[in-house]
Amino acid sequence: MALQSGADQPGADESRADEASPDVVLEARGITKRFPGVLANDTVDFALRRGQVHCLLGENGAGKSTLMNVVFGLYQPDAGELLVRGEPVRFRSSADAIAAGIGMVHQHFQLVPVMAVWENVVLGDELTRGPLLDRGAARARIAELSERYSLAIDPDAVVGELSVGAQQRVELLKALFRDADILILDEPTAVLTPQEVDGFFEIVRSLLDRGISVVFITHKLREVLAVADEVTVLRGGKAVGRADPRTATQGSLATLMVGRDVSFEVDKAPAEPGAVVLRVVDLTVADDRGVPTVSGLELQVRAGEIFGVAGVEGNGQRELVEAITGIRPSVSGSVAIGGTDVTGWNPRRIADLGVGHVPEDRSKDGLVGPFSLADNLVLNRYHRAEFSRRFVVRRDAVRRNAERLVADFDVRTTGVDVPAGTLSGGNQQKLVIARELSADLSLLIVAQPTRGLDVGSIEFIHRQIVARRDEGVAVLLVSAELDEVLSLADRVGVLYRGRFAEVLDREEATRRRCGMLMGGADQHAEEVA
Amino acid sequence: MSEPGRRDPPGRGLASRLIETYFRAAPVTVPIYAVLTAAAVGSLVILAVGSNPVDAYGALLSGAAGSPGAIAGTLARSTPYIIAALAVAFGFKAGLFNIGAEGQLLMGALAAAWVGSSPALAGLPAVAYLPLVLMAGAAGGLLWGGIPGVLKARTGAHEVIVTIMLNAIALGAVAWVVTSPDPVLLLDTTASVPHSRPMAASARLPELIAGSGLHLGFVVALALCAVVWFVLERTTLGFEIRTSGVSPNAARYAGMSVPRIIILVLAAAGALAGIGGAGEVSGGPNGYLTPGLLRNIGFDSIAIALLARANPFAIIPAALLWGGLLSGAPLMQLRADLSLDLVLIIQALIILFVAADAIVRFLFRVRRPKRDDELGEQAIFAKGWGV
Amino acid sequence: MLLAMVDLPAQDKPTRPPRTPRRGFTRLSRLQTIGVAYLLLGVTLVVQVAGALDPAQVVFLFGLGDGVPQVGVQPAAFTLGTGLLFVLAGVVALGERWTGRYAGVALLVATVLFVPLVLVTSLALSAAGTMNVVPLMGESLRVGTPVALGALAGLYAERSGVVNIGIEGMMLAGAGVGFVVYAVLGAAGGWPLYVSVVVAVAVGGLMAALHALLSVTFRTDQIVSGVAINLLAIGLTSFLRREVLLPLGIGGGSTLPTIEIPLLADLPLVGRSLFVGKPIYFTMFLIFALTQVVLFRSAWGLRVRSVGENPHAAETLGIDVVKTRYQAVIVGGLLAGLAGAWFTLETVGTFDNLITNGKGFIALAALIFGKWRPWSAFGGAVLFGFAEALGRRIQLLDVSVGGFPVPSQFLQVLPFVVTIVVLAGAIGRAIPPASVGVPFERSR
Prior knowledge:
By secondary structure, chain A is α/β, with parallel strands linked by helices. Chain A is built from 18 helices and 24 strands. In chain A, the strands form 6 sheets. A 6-stranded mixed sheet of chain A has the order 6-9-10-3-11-12, sandwiched between helices. Chain A has a 6-stranded mixed sheet with strand order 18-21-22-15-23-24, with helices on both faces.
């Protein structure tokens, strides 16, 4: 294998076992970062040693990404200092951080979908020949890096057409292309199947073998124990503790992370399924580009059960939900709710059948940020007699409704006239949940109900969903978090390329089995059968 | 997290409360500051051409409001601006940028002139004729506003470009209908300067004060402000319009039909502007239509709607400012020897400073909101190509 | 092409068997809607127009000089044939479900036929019987020059993520200030003429810098900022005209000289029409070629495009988004200023209020028509140039319909009508750069 061109620093050949002489390559001392109204980092200390994986553990909003954005030069700290290889540094922009050998793979990929892989990789660090881009040299370099780290990336592919896993490897390439020897990986496994996660850890190990040091941001305890050499736990912007992954348990880490004893198990009684409420037959739905992302899908959800849809995002989840709720027209097939064929109905009529819908993107689709809480809480039912007389809105009724729901669903706010966009993520989601779950429901569709929320909000929302099930509502739960599906669902359907690879009873649905199906493993066997 | 108690100083003295009030009043004060800043920059221009800003502005002011007659003139001048700015603001509320008020005014005026001068209707009493004329204006504007609405909703053609094109087309159409000698359509063949047939006396909006030029259209304009406010703020339709203006996605998810709202709003905005056009031709001093009658009123209304932050009631003072600038300009030209076009520059500067309120906030030390969401709906105007 | 996204409310029956197309007018796809238009037009041509035309042959000449190729066309037959083709295309498009991709192809063919159709019918309706096509093409290019340059002005800005609706204002300011400077310098040609062109270009850049200041630094709504630019340009130029130009008493001046491109100008048939012209006209072609290279082959172009698509991605790679957007918007403004100079300093030799007459907005339409790609935008600009050139030609030819001459206003608004039709029915919906119109907030 070729020599690593970036391995110009001494000690690049040190192996991971050589922990006796660990030297710190990256250190943060007393980092403080304020945003309006929020203290995101409060005098945080942190040190990364060469050739190690240092996990930053913490729940959503604990300040992990903020800290790393400071390290990467995207945010300017209000106090504290950074040292890279022992030298104090001050990064004015990410260009400075990149020059110092730091690379970052962001949680939300920072890629330009319409451009080719090679263009994405060289951007900002262009190889040129005269005044023009040197495409040949860029491709050669990328091909070489791709082979060395077994990334299997075609430099000429258009990024938007790559799978999510491949896009992540493009992000890695961007960092490696710039000879980064300190890599920050922000929640890198969120978009991968369990099996892909294993493969990803392989890649991380091959990076370590070449002397690259890795900061690994996550809130998943299992991954910490699988990959970390060292752990720093953040809570409420503070570094609240360090742990040794060789001795720590998931329980001890969870307690440190949340600040109290938590159980990630959801209390729920066995389901008592009733009649079929949602019946989807041979449904095909196209995405915005006209490509069918749901094809020939069959689905039944009964009253009093939670049907969990597992799967890697982009396998048709969004289109499926939008087709059932009438937001997106289907190409063919039918959707029936409570025995009524609702195919081709508009969203209003479907909602009026008693269908609640918590959309996956709450701030874009579920709420109107500048509108008051009160207005947001009647967003889809202002037209009903309860809230309007002829065409005039009954403002007192809207207000009373808001006051009641805010209290019932524990939305933390100073009043119901506050713009919804000023609430925290957890409270925004509670607002949507309050609106959708307070209706008279027969079917509830929830997509990514707890994405980006803190543990307290997650627990609250999970309890609410289970409570609706116990009242006899049919629940369709879509989540990219396999753990969430497994802890809530009574039956699990694994969505792969627009149809269910398999529908499993909860007992059959093990992490391993689901993971295989999410990656398309059983697809072939099923087709033969 | 919103915990407002945290940021307030503990003392709660008079000074801190005054400061808080100052910031709270930003929606009202910032546009006023923008006008002041524009006047200040305008005075630099006046100095540059060697005139005295104090004299110039003094003459402007007395021309606009120096006498009862001047005030009536300003009110008369403002009337079409109020209605046209309503048409623009109505679009803003739905997230649509209606640059087409210019053409919609013209088409409304054309329809009104046609109906109002129709030999078949001559002799109709005013109680029947006037509503008919205004409705004809509304219909003409509705047609001209409906086209971009349908095109946007059905094909995604952006309303900004379509309405600009329709403005030019309306101008051509009106010029042809009003001045074409062969075939004669609406030309007054006896006139030396080509214009449309004169409207019947009973189709003319009566003057409020005889000889002042201030006509019933002004009252209509004020009433329309109230109607538009009520529709937007108090009805379910208004709720739909505002929702799809701020977040078309959320509107779609909440079961509203965004294309329907787009068509409806642009058509209604056109109808509003059309009433404005009808009012001008029927209430104006001549009682006939010339192609240049409504020149630039539609464009200036954009600035007025912006200045008023699309608030239907705030449009009234903003339009009065505009009318005042225009009706005071001749006296300024006379006394300070300045070109009328200076008013155009001041108008452009006003919209500039209103648009870039960050400049004004900086100059007058008005705190910028931490997040756009805090502004509520005031922050919302048009959004890019919005495709 | 699959089922188009239809967001109109579904009003059809509640129960519906699977695999049936959606019904009703509101359910027509875009192609089907266009198909209906062609169907109606085709029927009109066949039934109404073809028979009414003068049966005498019309002749098209291709080029200047002796022995130029010519084509004779029988108007009635041609119109009949085209009408039938339109009907066919309409039917094929309506049956999109069964004809699939042929629907698009059929409409494209029909659209291409539009140009000869208009030429033939207008010639048949006029007193003249012949028309020379090559000078018409030459004039289309010339008249399309400011539109093309304006489209490039929009291209740079919008590729970097800034909507530029102020092209018109930038052009107008360039045209006005450029000519005022020329007038002050005597308006007698020579070096002041070139200085004035440079001033016009610089003024366009300055206006663009103001647009960037408002929309990039102050994150003003970009469309509002563009409108402000347009208003400011109107106020500024009419003020300058009244205060400076009119007192000088200079009504007009000599314009940029006509030059011939060696060798090319001597080409048979087309040489004199296409390769004899004025400097800005020729520069326009150069700039297009250059833009194609700069935008798609240079590092700066890569950055501009990335900033327009995903500014945050660019920022994480250390690219200064704000600076890049400023650069792109200002480069565009310089080109708009050059387009302004085309009006006053290359073509007319004087300045009147609102001399740009909406060309900046047409440029924007050309840009959208060209889907934010240089050469396609050029195609759009030439199309509008053709509409205008044709309008002028028709006026010269004394075309009359039903005994009345075609009103001059109709010909003046022709390019605007074409713009709307093109925007509404542009072949395939254009997708703008992903971040255009979205103000960028730097991380702190």
